[in-house]
Amino acid sequence: PGVGAEVFIRPSTKANGLTFDKEGRLCVAGWASRSVWRVERDGSVTTLASHYQGKRINSPNDIVVRSDGSIYFT
User: What is the pLDDT of residues 40-71, one digit of tens each?
Assistant: First the structure.
């Protein structure tokens, strides 16, 4: 990190909800990507959810990670 604002990830997927899990990884509700994903410690991205019952999820808005690691999103 330098001084001032920096680009963290591109494209941003128009992330609405952001939170950290207990391991310090950023968990994201990505509106434009229609997915929930996580930024790993090495900077790679893991998709956690993009479909439900065979259909794409629609516009994830917010996300929460419980202390037991369970992830909930709207």
Answer: 999 899 999 999 999 999 999 999 999 999 99
- Is residue 7 assigned to a domain? no
Q: In this structure, is residue 30 part of a structural domain? A: yes
Token pair recorded at residue 24 = 């310090």
CA 6, CA 54: separation in Å to the nearest integer?
A: 37
Provide the 8-state DSSP code for 32.
Answer: T
Q: Are 30 and 36 in contact (CB under 8 A)?
A: yes
Note down the domain range covering 58.
15-73
Q: Report the predicted TM-score, pTM, of the whole model to 2 decimal places.
A: 0.84
Q: Is residue 1 part of a domain?
A: no
